[in-house]
Amino acid sequence: MKHSKIIFLVFLALGNTLSITQQAYAQHKLGSICTVKGQEAVKLHGMGLVVGLNGTGDNKLVPTLRSLAGFMEQMGYSIRGQQGSNFNLQELEKTKNAALVHIEVTIPPEGASEGDFFDCRVSAIGASSLQGGTLIMTPLVGPVPGSKAVYAIASGRISAEIDNPTTGVVKEGCRTEVDLKSPLLSPKGNVILILGKEHADFILTYEIAKQINSNSSLAAQEGEDGRAIELEEEEEAAKALDARTIQVRVPKHYATDTVSFIYELLQEKIYIDHSRNKITINKKTGVVIVPQNIEISPAAISVKGLNITISQNFLAVDLKAKTTELNTTQTENIKLKALVDSLNAIEAPVEDIIAVLEALKKNGSLYAVLEIVD
Question: What is the C-alpha separation between 99 and 135, in angstroms, rounded?
Answer without folding.
Answer: 9
